[in-house]
């Protein structure tokens, strides 16, 4: 984990993102099963933070997210199946949630094998409920996308999905500007 962080930073990475859980589009991994141990996540986050870089964890499942939060991760990407304990941990440690709601655009418009389509349908069905709980618990939210899952250029749809789930228009705009800049450590330059 430390080697991977060092290698990527050597080649100009500003953020180390890891897959703490499986992915929706993966034919071999369940989305709610952790893919890394606590020790691996601890090493990854420690190394990145030592080198003054931010960290992000692709985590759909609650246990994977909890491990990442315990390690000191800066953001949880997706968070589809987070439970209240994971959301409270994120709130208490100031970890950002990047809910990537607009992934549903690509997930509903694409043709996937039945196994993957079932995972995609299950994930999309959970997104709104999870975000509403995160908002209610006061979790910090930043706008980001999984733009490879749907066409680039449709990113602004995320603002509407956030507002539909209970964020005010101003809150959703802040998620895509100052909150996202803060998450990336760029608040003094952009956002």
What labels would you give this structure?
191 residues, alpha/beta, 4-stranded parallel β-sheet, 12% strand
The helix count comes to 9
Topology, number of strands: 4
Distance between the termini: 31 Å
| Secondary structure category | alpha/beta
Strand order of the largest sheet: 1-2-3-4
Mean pLDDT: 94
Describe this structure in words.
- With 191 residues, the chain is an alpha/beta fold.
- 50% of the residues lie in helices and 12% in strands.
- A four-stranded parallel beta sheet has the order 1-2-3-4.
- Helix 4 links the parallel strand 3 and strand 4.
- Helix 1 runs parallel beside helix 2, helix 2 packs across helix 3 and helix 7 packs across helix 8.
- The model has no long low-confidence stretch (mean pLDDT 94).
């Amino acid at each position: 984990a430390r080697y991977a962080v060092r290698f990527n930073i050597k080649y100009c990475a500003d953020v180390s993102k890891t897959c703490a859980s499986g992915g929706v589009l993966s034919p071999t991994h369940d989305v709610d099963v952790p893919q890394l141990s606590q020790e691996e996540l601890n090493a990854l986050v420690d190394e990145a933070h030592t080198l003054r870089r931010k960290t992000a964890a692709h985590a759909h499942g609650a246990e994977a997210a909890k491990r990442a939060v315990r390690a000191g991760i800066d953001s949880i990407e997706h968070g589809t199946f987070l439970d209240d304990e994971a959301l409270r941990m994120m709130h208490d440690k100031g970890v950002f949630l990047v809910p990537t709601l607009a992934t549903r655009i690509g997930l509903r418009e694409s043709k996937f094998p039945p196994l993957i389509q079932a995972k995609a349908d299950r994930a999309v069905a959970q997104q709104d409920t999870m975000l509403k709980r995160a908002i209610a618990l006061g979790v910090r939210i930043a706008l980001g996308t999984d733009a490879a899952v749907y066409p680039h250029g449709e990113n602004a749809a995320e603002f509407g999905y956030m507002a539909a789930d209970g964020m005010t228009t101003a809150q959703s705009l802040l998620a895509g500007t100052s909150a996202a800049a803060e998450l990336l450590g760029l608040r003094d330059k952009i956002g």
